[in-house]
Design goal:
single chain, 743 residues, alpha/beta, Rossmann fold
Length: 743
């Protein structure tokens, strides 16, 4: 008997609503949910392939435990016994920092990945935290922390109302958007143009997004911050800076003007390979637009000056008066955000509260660079114990971090490793215990992280579309039991983890004079929570305490879990609204336009004006039908344009004797790899491009389809030594490489 079920797609940041067709317990089709309050029926190839992702036969169905050197199926009890026996002795002998935690990108796409890792980290007390953020967006977190006092206060472009959108290092027609949650990003860009707006794209590749643009500027890779600094210089030089209503909330404008004095369009033209007239035109068009938004993404983050580029994106929005106004860039307000506190000075944002043991990299947002994970495992120093045990949750750093070969060897040397992963992949194959979560159709979904980045305020929740298969364990229970096993409470009821969080959260809320439940009895509030399990009770609590919540009866029309369940297609909470100064948590209570760490890094950017790459430089690229290394095992999502080829411009190909389709050896600072050449003028001369997430040719994995077309691991070309110093983010774009045709 066939039926339909609603589900929010967890396969990229667009968070589109899906209508699934379910036959028995198998998802046989997926289409866009036309009644979804946010996505309105939009779907991309990943969402359409939901059923194939869900039913991939290579997904692990039972835990694996290493016995006599071999991973073998085990019971859940045996698996968690092994976790407790593996982690606790490391903590007791060597201290909590000897246990590393690696969190991969999929964590932000699941309910469990949002709710439980913070509890695990708090309970373990380790400083050895590594996440996908430091091979992606950490520069944006750091620049937001320095500007606004909150690393998670990230303004997003008001796509549906802006008159002028400038994208730098972003290709949303392929990525579906990133740090900007927007179903049907392509449709929104086309609507911008249809209403007479302007789209400008700055990218060394003529991407699908760039082909849609009114103006495409093919900047030299890695020069993003120089170009943006020169645009800000023009705003000051030509008296075009106008903060408007922002002015009372901003400090440091005059100091910023002085700091950018050397970054003239003429001075940066050679290093950016953008003529001064174009740079001035970009600045003038931005200032002249009725409303405008500048949006930068991974191409501007994963470069030597990633934090400065991320900061300058917001600087341009501020100097043109477009921050925190409709049509500009605004701060979303998610339904599960904490109750907004009154505006005023906060604690601010600190960098480098501790440093990595080997290379002394400063922490950022509580994290150490993922690039440093291998050396933190395999290198002895007097600065403390190396990482001896590792907890990896939905992470595949052997492919996603630089120098995967070294990390491969380092993982083999660990005393113990546990991996929460549905696959035996390039990283989890090293684990002593693998804990597989169920397929997405068997899990609930709410977007805790992505709603804080959404271009429209809304809230949606879907329960599992398919009952949990016999022998499976819910991902929420897996992570709750992992917390108990890793922290000396092995064998306790996993519901105790949720109960503890509820008790602590409500206890804090009733003591907060700004909370809607101030002064009330936390036990009475806990008794009022609804939901079928602990995670739903926690969601109910967060909704009711949040900015749109019912306050446990204080605001009867407010949100609760039950109200959300009564609206299966979601609840629209309206367009983004100006919120300043409330989101600011800086010590001054204002936007601090030129914070000291930024000012201290500007001389490094100034020296970059004199440098030109002598040879070829490498950049990455996105594919619409994949998300990092996740989906290469799904036949429907590989092939076609989703191929691991080296893009090279015809001029460079002719000069080097490279033929289209022929194998080319690419050598970088960390190693070399071979990939088929694809000669195309979509990359500018001097630039070659390899996509990220490939390299599925290591032994011991169970990725049947991915292994047939493994591709090349681009990160193996990098040795991990190149980092943005403020954020610890890996430099993945604009790195020098040498090409040799394979004869």
């Amino acid at each position: 008997m066939s039926r339909t079920a609603l589900r929010i797609c967890p396969l990229c940041e667009a968070t589109c609503g899906l209508t699934l067709t379910v036959d028995g317990t198998r998802v046989t089709a997926a289409r866009g949910d036309r009644d979804d309050v946010f996505s309105r029926g939009f779907i991309c190839p990943k969402g359409a392939s939901f059923g194939a992702v869900d039913s991939d036969p290579d997904r692990l169905r039972a835990p694996l435990v290493r016995r006599d050197g071999e991973l073998r199926e085990a019971t859940w009890e045996e698996a968690f016994d092994a976790v407790a026996a593996g982690i606790r002795p490391v903590v007791e002998r060597h201290g909590p920092h000897a246990v590393g935690v690696v969190l991969g990108n999929p964590n932000v796409h699941t309910v469990a990945g949002a709710l439980y890792p913070p509890v695990l980290l708090g309970a373990l007390g380790t400083r050895s935290l590594f996440t996908a953020s430091t091979v992606d967006q950490m520069p944006k977190h750091v620049s937001s922390g320095l500007l606004y006092g909150d690393a998670n206060a990230i303004p997003v472009p008001d796509l549906d109302r802006t008159d002028h959108l400038l994208l730098i290092g972003a290709n949303p027609l392929e990525s579906n958007g990133s740090l900007c949650t927007a179903p049907d990003f392509p449709g929104r860009l086309k609507a911008l143009k249809a209403r007479g707006g302007t789209l400008t794209v700055i990218d060394p590749r003529r991407t699908r997004t760039a082909r849609l643009a009114d103006r495409h500027v093919a900047v030299r890779p890695g020069a993003d911050a120089l170009l943006l600094a020169a645009m800000a210089h023009v705003l000051f030089e030509e008296d075009l800076a106008d903060l408007g209503a922002l002015a009372p909330h901003v400090e440091g404008v005059e100091e910023l003007a002085a700091a950018l004095g050397d970054f003239t369009p003429e001075a940066v033209a050679g290093s950016c390979d953008v003529d001064a007239a174009t740079t001035r035109a970009l600045a003038r068009e931005l200032a002249a637009a009725p409303t405008a938004a500048v949006y930068g993404r991974i191409g501007s983050c994963t470069v030597p000056h990633g934090t400065l580029a991320s900061w300058l994106v917001d600087v341009l929005n501020i100097l043109t008066g477009n921050l925190d106004r409709p049509g500009g860039a605004l701060f979303p307000q998610a339904a599960t955000d904490k109750t907004p506190r009154p505006a005023g000075p906060g604690r601010g944002f600190a960098l480098g509260r501790w440093r990595s043991r080997v290379s002394g990299h400063p922490e950022a947002k509580g994290e150490l660079p993922l690039s440093a994970l291998a050396e933190e495992i395999d290198t002895a120093t007097d600065a403390g114990e190396p990482v001896r045990a590792l907890v990896a949750v939905a992470a595949n750093p052997v492919l996603s971090a630089p120098d995967g070969d070294r990390l491969d060897k380092a993982l083999d040397s660990l005393d113990f490793m546990v991996s929460v992963d549905p696959y035996l992949n390039e990283t989890s194959r090293h684990a002593h215990v693998v804990l597989p979560p169920p397929p997405p159709a068997q899990s609930p979904h709410h977007d805790f992280a992505f709603n804080t980045l959404a271009v429209r305020n809304q809230v949606r929740y879907t329960r599992p579309a398919v009952p949990l298969e016999p022998g499976r364990m819910a991902e929420t229970e897996i992570l709750a039991r992992l917390i108990l096993a890793a922290t000396g409470m092995h064998g306790a009821d996993p519901a105790a983890v949720d109960a503890m969080v509820v008790e602590q959260t409500l206890g804090k809320a009733v003591r907060d004079p700004h909370s809607p439940v101030h002064g009330r009895d936390p036990r009475d509030l806990a008794a009022r929570l609804t939901g079928e399990n602990g995670p739903e009770r926690r969601l109910d609590m967060m909704l009711r305490l949040g900015p749109y919540g019912d306050g446990f009866g204080a605001r009867p029309e407010g949100l609760s879990l039950q109200r959300l369940l009564d609206h299966p297609h979601g609840i629209d909470l309206g367009p983004l609204r100006p919120r300043l100064p409330q989101p600011l948590k800086t010590r001054s209570g204002k936007v601090e336009l030129l914070p000291e760490p930024i000012a201290g890094d500007l001389p490094r950017l100034r020296s970059a004006m004199d440098r030109r790459p002598a040879g070829l430089v490498l950049v990455g690229r996105r594919h619409l039908r994949s998300n990092n290394s996740w989906m290469h095992n799904i036949p429907a999502l590989t092939g076609g344009s989703n191929r691991c080829t080296l893009h090279i411009h015809p001029e460079d190909a002719e000069r080097l004797g490279v033929r289209d389709g022929a194998a080319v050896r690419v050598k970088g600072a960390g190693g070399e790899a071979t990939a088929p050449a694809e000669v195309t003028d979509t990359v500018r001369p001097g630039v070659v491009s390899l996509p990220h997430g490939w390299g599925h040719d290591r032994p011991g994995t169970r990725l049947t389809h991915a292994a047939t077309v493994p591709g090349t691991n681009v990160n193996q070309l990098l040795d991990g030594s190149l980092l943005d110093p403020l954020s610890g983010n890996a430099v993945l774009n604009g790195v020098p490489v040498v090409l040799t045709p394979v004869t």
